[in-house]
Model the fold of this input.
Amino acid sequence: MSVYTRVEAAEVTAFLRDYAVGELLDLQGIADGIENTNYFVTTRGGAFVLTLFERHAEVELEYFLELMVALADHGLACPRPIMADDGSYLRRLAQRPAALVERLAGKAVTEPSVAQCAAVGEALGRIHRIGRHVHRRRSNERGPAWWRVTADALRGVLQADTMALIDAEIAFQAAFDTQHLPRGVIHADLFRDNVLFEGERLSGVIDFYAACNDILLYDLAICLNDWCVVPDGDFDDARARAFLAAYVSGRPPVAGEAAALPAMLRAAALRFWLSRLYDLHFPRAGEITHVKDPGHFERILRLRIAQPQRTAALWPA
Ligand SMILES: Nc1ncnc2c1ncn2[C@@H]1O[C@H](COP(=O)(O)OP(=O)(O)O)[C@@H](O)[C@H]1O
Ligand SMILES: N[C@@H](CCOP(=O)(O)O)C(=O)O
Done:
């Protein structure tokens, strides 16, 4: 579940007095999600999602909200934050920072089609372009420094050969030159559960609460490893081609990006393997029970190491 902080209708009614959204008609806790407390809020003025943020600092939340406003202003299908009467997007409710955003139609897909992968590639290219308008900055809290700390935390609980693979990959990534790769705002967690569809139409990209400034190609690699794979982690060529073609039509790559993709795919696999391993071995008290399979990303990492040329033919000429 993802209602960590309970709020009553009376509290939400009082909270909504500072927004021009009309009277509260309905309040429903949202069961999906991992990190924050989310409620569907229906008022006379529309349908919204109320998020109570459970762990981020206000300065980070200002970054996420600035990004969502910029994306919505530039026409990306994503939840537009609702401005309170005092001009702010971030308020407080039940001793938590809280924001009200537009509720979007659609559902997440578990088996994406070629057309849906193309739509996600197109949306990711747009996020990377529009991200240039965001003035605040945020570093990637799950970047190489976090990989090393997390690997050290896992050292006592993993088998020696598993640990050796993690250490070798961290060393490979440290030696890999990324200076020439374009950087900007990345979503950083654009998995299947963070995109809503109505049929083949992408109706919303959600959950910008891992967004940060990092290598754009790394964001692309995160998506490819999730959206464009068959269950064993190998690429589905048609989906990967469609995703890449749609992405590069919106954000043309610079020299050297295609050659760096195999390493970025490995970095993306390592990052989610580590977070899943950490969540499995060190579950957070009182939090989510649906632990995601770390083995999936171990398989993906091993495959990407074994097949460095695999994406060469998928990247548009
Ligand atoms: N703006 C929105 N419109 C419609 N549904 C949403 C919206 N935001 C969140 N949801 C629903 O709430 C769920 C949890 O949201 P998410 O942001 O992924 O939570 P968390 O940050 O806790 O992981 C999503 O899977 C989706 O079903
Ligand atoms: N999409 C991820 C979960 C989100 O990552 P986290 O580091 O915030 O837990 C996955 O499928 O593992």
